[in-house]
Amino acid sequence: MVAGVAPFALGEAKPRDVLRRAHSAAQDARRMETRVSVYSSTEDAAHQRRFSLLNDFSAALTSRDQLRLVYQPRIDIGSRACGGAEALLRWRHPSLGDISPGEFMPIIEQTSKAREATAWVLGTVLKQIAAWRGAGLDLKISMNVSASNLLEPDFAGRVVESLVEHSLEASCLEIEITETAVMEHAGPALSALETLAGAGVRLAIDDFGTGYSSLSYLQRLPTKVVKIDQSFVRDLAEDERARSLVSAMIALSHDLGYRVVAEGVETKQILDIIEGLSCDEAQGYLIGRPMAPENFTSWCREGPYAPRAEPGTGPL
């Protein structure tokens, strides 16, 4: 049980405002040990912004110019060849400007709009892969899905159907899930992942090391890739303990049969270090920043990490 306290002056406050403030305080109370919270105008403003973004996201899904995907390349460290990229969602609100995914996605993922958002991303990604194939670029693209997506009974089926609709083989798509998403809903999540893996979709554990996974679940997951979170990578040049930890993570992942990607590679020194630790792939600003599709196309054709000429031999 929680209690939200909202002081007001009789005859001066509108009933709707009093209820909204009380609700805001009750929402804050859910996060407090005492389970009691007094209304805060600052927190109320934050609640109002979250509520507004949630409502406005529906319009964004049907708009032609609010949502877009950008693509951040991944390279094979040994060959320095790019085989694909991670698709990242961006939102330019008509009045608020660019909204960080770190702000709007946690809100969306707690609602039924998570299904619509993922469907939009999936459709856009597959359409883009098909366009790149038509232009002679054999790229494999990864996308993130949330814990709520894994709970949708038809999620895996919809992914497979979408691939068929776009005449694409399943291996061109990689789905990234976090350790926490799987651990919180182990049964349904494993079932969905096994279906996807059985269809040939590649699976990756994102932000590896930041969750609370157990080795027993890592052994059971039908994933092929682990992506070491950038928080472990960024200090490798200065922190010997960080190097030891990342080295152990890479070795463990290899022992379990995973391909390892280091996220957040921003300097040549870091790239050299993870190469020395036998990491398989790298992603980060050193390799390339997230780019619009047309810019990524030019980068692939002209950049130092051009994809391999032979079809189907990229590192992803």
Task: Set out the fold topology.
Blueprint (H helix, E strand, L loop, with lengths): L2 E3 L9 H15 L6 E3 L2 H22 L4 E10 L5 E12 L3 E3 L1 H8 L4 H22 L5 E5 L2 H4 L4 H11 L7 E6 H6 L1 H14 L2 E7 L6 H6 L4 E4 L1 H4 L6 H16 L3 E4 L5 H9 L4 E3 L9 H10 L14
Parallel strand pairs: 1-2, 4-6, 6-7, 7-8, 8-9, 9-10, 10-11
Antiparallel strand pairs: 3-4, 3-11, 4-5
Helix pairs in contact: 1-2, 2-3, 6-8
Radius of gyration using CA atoms only: 22 Å
What structural class is derived from the secondary structure elements?
A: alpha/beta
How many strands appear in the DSSP assignment?
11
Percent helix range: 40-55%
Low-confidence stretches: 309-316
Q: CATH class of the largest domain, please?
A: Alpha Beta
Oligomer kind: single chain
Q: At the fourth CATH level, what is the homologous superfamily of the largest domain?
A: EAL domain
Average pLDDT rating: 87
